Amino acid sequence: MNIIKLKDIFLKFFEEKGHKIIPSAPIIPENDPTCLFNTAGMQPLVPYLKGQPHPEGSRLVDVQKCFRTNDLDSIGDTTHHTFFEMLGNWSLGDYFKKESITWSFELLTKKLNIPVEKLAVTVFKGNKIVPADNESAEIWKSLGISEKRIAFLGEENNWWPNMELLGPCGPDTEIFYWRSEETVPEVFDPEDETWVEIWNNVFMQYNHEENETFTPLKNKNVDTGLGIERVTAILEGYTDNYKSSIWKDVISKIEEISGLEYDNSEYTKSMRIIADHIRAIVIISGDNAGIKPSNTDQGYILRRLIRRMIRYAKKLNIDINSNWEQELAVLIINEYSKYYNELEKNQNDILETLKNEKIKFNRTLEKGLKEFEKVIKNIDGDKINKDIAFRLYDTFGFPIELTEELAKEQGLKVDTEGFKEKFKEHQEKSRAGSEAKFKGGLASTGEMETKYHTATHLLNAALKQVLGSHVHQKGSNITAERMRFDFSHPEKMTDEQKQKAEELVNKYIDMAIPVERMEMKKEEAIALGAEAMFIEKYGEIVSVYKIGDVSLELCGGPHVKNTSELGHFKIKKEESSSAGVRRIKAILE
Ligand code: SER
Q1: 571, 501 in Cβ contact below 8 A?
Q2: Buried-most residue among 29, 52, 240, 518 (CB within 10 A)?
Q3: What Rg, from alpha-carbon coordinates, does the chain have?
Q4: pTM exceeds 0.85
Q5: How many structural domains are present in the chain?
């Protein structure tokens, strides 16, 4: 069972049960400042989970690109990946627990032929918001899962995403598989890591607002996620994901380049890290958002991945100056362009990015490693202090995580907190994303964010008027305090142009234009000249926001009802974002 077959079986199965297949959202979320990457299939669906009708209906199914940095330290084991693909089905106020569980069971046991004896499940044991989920447990029992294979667990395990994050959430039931040739124990022990989670069914019924308030959502929704890498390995009979057909060619290529063997335990971990990271690097740098290595946000993660991969390639004695990373990247591009055609389109960018960052890192890595050795020879105590950690970062381009890793290998600690303070002081201009952002979270679209969201549409329209029709949105970032808007334009705007754009937006606000949401075929929207930043993100039927004759954009929302709600618009700054892309920072007063 390879990846194509698994995707096919899953999508078809749910299509037959009335679900519409929707395309994966980009790995870099639009209009979501709380989150650097799409970490789950439900993320782009937040507005619909909150009750907005989805243009494709109330039953959806897709393959979603996901990236999670919180698993970075686990990379190198058999089951974790930074980038991974998740299959998911959704009910937006349509079916609930019974159908969801029954269909998961049917797909696993009838279509994928997984023996019932190898399955176990967890259900929610209850908290102050909802009682124990006996209903799900009863459904599992009726399907043939024995009581001994059902574990009732608390919020830490069976609440998604978790109790802290804001946005849609709820209790879940998770399905586990006994990944071993050994006899399956009669009683399920969730602590035993031979049981691996393969599918999560979330019953999304609440919106976590500010102040620990959990308000029931308008609809009772279902959000499920099945990890493709794990399930492919399981179906192919492997206990190590990297042995499966998904990774076979990449691992063979690394073996060929290094002349070493994956099965030699001395090299296994390094090869897994290289394989995982090169795939993530290709997907992130191949996204249409045009992410380049940098010291902030997604660019920082990309830099970290590339540098970490190079360090592990060195451990395998790969000649860093050869074309090894290009060969690996091309392999991934060829494989994944089948699903994500932007990779083919952006191939040159991906390869250039990798090469340039490699050259940059190479220049300083040797020197940095020497410096590091000097440092540990003269160290006082068992901790690398903040000044040294910062020098390694600032002068030698060592991400703090690299210093931490090197230190750990020597049994040393790093004053990471101190480093971060120093880092902050030096980063006033280009502020790094917060810890929370690196961990990933879900959008909280409050009143102000919604206003700013509508303001981006107006600004986009105004800039087209003032600068010309070559202006297109390249990205945006919204908080409750301000908006950032990136757009294509080759040169600095003059003061007059800035003033004109500002005046136009305020004129549109004063005109009190209603903001209308419409649904239409994608082709129809394009024919009408609707703006769309990521055309591949959208399905056949799209939602389009119309602001009088001023603006027409493909967009998931949310937006205000009338432009008059926005107040006064003010441009604070116009600057370069990257080659051919300008950035405007603006506020609503
Ligand atoms: N949102 C859930 C998860 O990511 C199910 O899709 O596990």
Answers
A1: yes
A2: 29
A3: 25
A4: no
A5: 4
Averaged confidence pLDDT in the chain: 90
Pick the more confident residue, 557 or 277.
Answer: 277
**Is there a single domain that holds both residue 168 and residue 230?**
yes
Ligand 1 atom 4 nearest Cα: 40
Q: Which residues pair with residue 515 across a beta bridge?
A: 547
From the alpha carbon of 39, which atom of ligand 1 is closest? 4
Q: In terms of domains, do 31 and 164 share one?
A: yes
Q: Are residues 327 and 277 in the same domain?
A: yes
Average pLDDT over every residue of 487-509: 95
Contacts of 406 (CB under 8 A, 6+ apart): 369, 372
Q: Do the domain assignments include residue 372?
A: no
Query: Residue 95 C-alpha to ligand 1 middle, in angstroms?
Result: 17
Verify that 35 and 131 share a domain, yes or no.
yes
Please return the burial class of 553, using the count of CB atoms within 10 Å of its CB with bins 0-12, 13-18 and 19+: buried
**d(C-alpha 355, C-alpha 229), whole Å:** 28
Task: Output the ligand 1 site: residues, CB below 6 A.
Answer: 40-42, 88, 160, 200, 202, 223-225
Residue 44's pLDDT is what? 85
Residue with tokens 């390995």: 233
Same domain, 187 and 94: yes
Regarding whether 457 and 423 lie in a shared domain, the answer is no
Q: What is the pLDDT of residues 108-154, one digit of tens each?
A: 999 999 999 999 999 999 998 889 999 999 999 999 999 999 999 99
HEC readout, 449-496: HHHHHHHHHHHHHHHHHHHCCCCCEEEEEECCCCEEEEEECCCCCCHH
Structural domain including 433 reads 379-438
DSSP annotation string for 119-173: EEEEEE---SSS---HHHHHHHHHHT--GGGEEEE-HHHHEES-SSS-EEEEEEE
